[in-house]
Every structure is written in C-alpha cells, then in structure tokens.
C-alpha cells in the first residue's frame, strides 16, 4: 500500500522499509539501485521520494540516542528523533536549543537536510546548529563528519543526496524560559515604516497576514524572561488565545497571553500533541536578503487579490545568516516569506510563477522542502555554491544511488 506525506499532497512511489540496526540499514543501501531517507514526511513534493523499484528508509526503528556533551555544549541525537522529544530530554537535563521550527513534529535529520528554521534576528536555522553528522554512505560504509571537516558546510543542507544520516550533533545552550504574546491588527504603514524594529522586537517574531486590508492581522512575539516586553501600539494585545488560520482550533497552538514557560513549549507555534497548521495544505517559502525585505513585502502585497482564493495565511520572519552551501541564509541574514496554501496543487502552481517573478529578482531562494516552480537555472543563480555541491555529490555518490526525480530535475 502506498504511503503519503503529512499533508496528503504527495503519494510516495517506493515502498517504505524500517531497518532496526545499522547493519540492516547498510545492506538496504547497497542492495538497491536507488534509496532515500524518509523523515517525518513534512516535505510537500517529491524531494524525499525515489524510483518505484527503489526503497524509502524510515529510521524510526533504529536505537534512540540523546547524548549531551556538557563540556562542548553539544547534543548528539538519532536523526529520526522528533524535535518535541529532543526538547523534553534536553530541558530535563538543563539544556536547550537556541531555536526550533514552528512544528515540533519534525525529525532532526529531515529538518536539517532541508534548511528548516524558526525565527529571530540573531537566530540561525536549525541546520546552522550542526557540529557533526554520522551516516551510511553510498558504499554501505559508515561515515562521520566533524565540525572541522571541510565537507561539513556542503553536507548539512544536503537534500538527502549524500547519504543516510543516522545521527546529528547540534549546539546547545543552557535552558531558558520564554513568554509568547500576540498583537492584533498592526497597521501596514506602521509595519513598513518600522519593519526592522517590528521584526526585532522579540527573541522570535512572526508576522501573520493575508496581505489584504489595512493591517497585519497578527504579530507573534516570543521574548526571553529577562527581556523588556514589547509594545506594538497602535496594534492591540490579544486578550485570548488565537490561531493564525481563521477558524482553526486554538487548542493546537502553544501557550500565549504572556505566560512564562520553557523554551521548547514556546518557540514552536504548535503543540506536539495536536495537528499543526491546517493539516491539509501546501506550503511555499522564499528567503529574501534582509536588505530587500521591504521591496519583497511591497511586491507580495501587490498580488493580494490573486493570492487570496488559495491562501490560508502567510508568515514573515527572520533568519540569521550561516555558511552552509545550500542554506537559504547562506552568507547573509534573510527575511523568509512563507505561504500556507489550500491543498490545490494546480491552483497553487498557477500563482507561484507570479510570486517568483517578483521575489527571485530580489535574490530570493526557494525553501527546498516546499512547493516552488523555480528552474535549475533559477536555483543556480540563487545558490552560488550549487556547482560546488554537485562536485561534492559526484565524489560522495558517484553512482547516483541517493538520486531521485527531484534531484535529476533541479541539480
């Protein structure tokens, strides 16, 4: 029986197998012409898929590891571990991650491989926390890359193209508390005139908008316990818990109204025990250089009427720059423009070219794990290290064992 991704937007072509040991995993890698790792299934396209006669490897049956090195301030964790479980264990030991994605449901290796991120002016993506990787290569042998390995910057956001990642080592910091507050109806003139200040008014800030009307409908601000609480007047502070998608169940979102709580219960937008976002949806996202954010904001607002029939909500947030070759924030801070669409594949693909013809000339880079229509040539212009990555891939996987239609088409 065929299996689907989280949103029901993609049906995988290959069977899913769950090895229980690293030895079994290595045999599966060498025993098939094409293999791919399958994480928590939050990619929206054929990125994790492979050929029908290949195999998809889910690593959730492998032994679990969460090992904190207090001296180095790192944690080494099994790649299939969900961030929700990692957060609970780290906090129990007095440690934390500097950032989390909006969904704690994601697997560590999958989120890292696609450049997934949270928000914050000084906060990098989850991939930028990586200090080491272990996995199984195309020849079935185990490999390990440490922080000083010259291949590491090209091997973190690697789209599953270099091997099956079994463990990831991440930077950690001492545990901390946050409060989350939501502000409603921030006028567009205030937003555009003070965009940097708005996006920097908390440890993590997200603007939620339909792009229509006179105001940004919601601003979610997550602040450290010792930080001054923001004042986004003339917006008004919410006096009840809200969901960013109109009509959705507010039980699914993390606690708001300024109540202090541990980092892993505030940084995500959604609770691990509930279906996040809308569930049945598509997503797109584009990373725009921070100094072009206002241009991008204006450009997307000009498409509001075209986007409205398909859009559930859009989110604008910040990500600090890093040195990872295929990262959306490679060598520069970015503002991420995220679109949560209704699950209408044809309709979304009809409007994406309109979005991209406005954002790509501004230097935007599409998020690898979400829906986009950018071509191989577009990506080569957006990701300056793409050719270098191709060379690394040819060296690490000369027989294209970890290839698939997505990589064939775009790389």
Q: How would you describe the overall organization of this protein?
A:
This protein has twelve helices and 19 strands. With 411 residues, the protein is of the alpha+beta class. It has two domains: 66-175, Uridine Diphospho-n-acetylenolpyruvylglucosamine Reductase, domain 3, CATH 3.30.465.10; 177-367, Alpha-Beta Plaits. Strands 11, 12, 13, 14, 15, 16, 17, 18 and 19 form a nine-stranded antiparallel sheet that branches. It has a five-stranded antiparallel sheet with strand order 4-5-9-7-8. The protein has a three-stranded parallel sheet with strand order 1-3-2, covered by helices on one side.
Question: What's this entry about, in short?
Answer:
With 411 residues, the chain is of the alpha+beta class. It has two domains: 110 residues, Uridine Diphospho-n-acetylenolpyruvylglucosamine Reductase, domain 3 (2-Layer Sandwich), CATH 3.30.465.10; 191 residues, Alpha-Beta Plaits, CATH 3.30.70.2520. It is 22% helix and 25% strand.
């Amino acid at each position: 029986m065929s299996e689907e991704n989280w949103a029901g937007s993609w049906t995988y072509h290959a069977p899913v197998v769950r090895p229980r040991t690293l030895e079994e995993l290595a045999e599966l890698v060498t025993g098939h012409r094409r293999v791919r790792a399958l994480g928590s299934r939050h990619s929206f396209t054929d990125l994790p898929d492979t050929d029908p006669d290949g195999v998809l490897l889910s690593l959730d049956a492998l032994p679990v590891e969460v090992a904190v090195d207090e001296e180095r301030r790192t944690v080494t964790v099994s790649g299939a571990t969900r961030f929700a479980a990692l957060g609970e264990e780290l906090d129990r030991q007095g440690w934390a991650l500097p950032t989390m994605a909006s969904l704690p449901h994601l697997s560590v290796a999958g989120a890292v491989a696609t450049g997934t991120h949270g928000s914050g002016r000084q906060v990098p993506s989850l991939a930028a926390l990586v200090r080491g990787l272990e996995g199984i290569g195309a020849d079935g042998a185990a490999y390990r890359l440490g922080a000083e390995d010259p291949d590491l910057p090209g091997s973190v956001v690697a789209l599953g193209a270099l091997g099956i990642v079994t463990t990831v080592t991440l930077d950690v910091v001492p545990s901390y508390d946050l409060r989350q507050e939501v502000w409603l109806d921030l006028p567009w003139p205030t937003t555009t005139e003070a965009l940097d200040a708005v996006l920097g008014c908390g440890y993590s800030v997200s603007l939620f908008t339909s792009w229509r009307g006179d105001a940004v409908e919601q601003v979610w601000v997550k602040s450290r316990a010792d930080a001054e609480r923001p004042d986004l007047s003339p917006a008004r502070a919410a006096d009840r818990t809200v969901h960013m998608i109109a009509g959705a169940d507010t039980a699914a979102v993390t606690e708001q109204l300024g109540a202090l709580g541990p980092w892993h219960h505030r940084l995500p937008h959604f609770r691990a025990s509930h279906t996040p976002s809308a569930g049945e949806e598509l997503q797109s996202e584009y990373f725009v250089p921070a100094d072009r954010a206002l241009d991008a904001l204006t450009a997307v607002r000009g498409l509001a009427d075209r986007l409205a029939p398909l859009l559930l909500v859009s989110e604008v947030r910040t990500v600090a720059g890093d040195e990872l070759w295929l990262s959306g924030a490679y060598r520069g801070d970015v503002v991420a423009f995220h679109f949560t669409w209704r699950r209408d594949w044809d309709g979304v693909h009809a409007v994406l070219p309109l979005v991209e013809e406005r954002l790509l000339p501004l230097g935007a880079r599409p998020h690898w794990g979400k829906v986009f229509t950018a071509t191989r040539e577009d990506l080569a212009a957006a990701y300056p290290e793409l050719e270098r990555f191709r060379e690394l891939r040819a060296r690490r996987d000369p027989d294209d064992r970890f290839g698939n239609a997505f990589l064939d088409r775009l790389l």
